[in-house]
Amino acid sequence: TIIFVHGTAAAANRWQNVAEQFVKTHRVIQYDRRGRGQSSDNDTYTLENEVDDLLALIDDLGNDFVVNIVAHSFGALVALAALNKHLLLCRRLILYEAPLAIPQKCEFIDMGLVSELERVLKDDGNEAATIFFQRKFPRTTEKEIEELKQLENWSGRIAAAHTIARELRVAHDFSPDMDALMECKIPCLILLGGASNEVFEISATTLQKYLPNSKLGVLPDERHRAMDTAPDLLFR
C-alpha cells in the first residue's frame, strides 16, 4: 500500500500522474487533506490535526497492511511530524522537498508575505491568492504558472486557497525533534529537484544527516513539481 500526501494549494489528485503508474503492483491511496476536496474541516487548525488524519487513515487500513508513504512539500512536513510521533510510522518513507526551515541556514516562510497573501485572498479572491502563493513561496515561474492553469487540478487549487495561509503559518513554526529522528530506522528516500532553490537543498541534506537510514535522490533539471513535468522520472 502506498499513501500519497499532497502539499499546500493542492488536493488528492496532485500525485495522479505518478500514482497511476503504481496501480498494477500496489494498492494506491490518495487523500484530500482537511479543508479541501471530499474532506471536511473544522474551526481550528493545527499540524496535530493533519498528523491525526494521516494516522487515522493508516489505522483504518487495518493491521494487515504495511504502508509506504510518499509525501510532497507541506505534506512532507506532515509526514515528518507523524514520524516524530511514531518512529515505526511506515515501511518506507519518501519525502519530496520538505520546506523544513533550518535555523541560521535557510528560511522558507516570510510572515509578511503570508499577511499579504491573506489580504489578496480577501480583496481579490481565490485565484489571485493561489497565483500569489505560487509566485512568492515555491517561486514558480510565470511560464510554470501558465502550465499549472492548464492542468485539471487547477480548479481544485483555487477552491483550496483558504487553506494556504494557515499551512504556511504552521510550516513557519514547525521544528521536528531532530534527535528523535536519529533513532528512526525506516528506509527514507529524500528527493530533491536538481534545479530547485538552494533552500530546498539545505533542507534535504540536513534531513539526510539526521535520518540514519536515508539517501538523497536528485531529479536532474527538475524543480518542485516533477509530478507534472517529469512523472516518469519521479515514478522510477
Task: Give an overview of the whole structure.
This protein is 44% helix and 12% strand. It has a six-stranded parallel sheet, with helices on one face. α1 links the parallel β1 and β2. It contains twelve helices and six strands. It is globular. α2 (47-60) packs across α3. By secondary structure, it is of the alpha/beta class. The longest helix is centred in the first third of the chain and has 14 residues, at 47-60.
State the main characteristics.
236 residues, 12 helices, 44% helix, six-stranded parallel sheet, globular, alpha/beta
List the helices and strands and how they pair.
Elements: E1 2-5, H1 16-19, E2 28-30, H2 47-60, E3 68-72, H3 74-85, E4 92-96, H4 111-124, H5 126-136, H6 142-149, H7 154-159, H8 164-173, H9 178-181, E5 188-193, H10 198-210, E6 214-219, H11 226-229, H12 231-235
Helix pairs in contact: 2-3, 4-5, 4-8
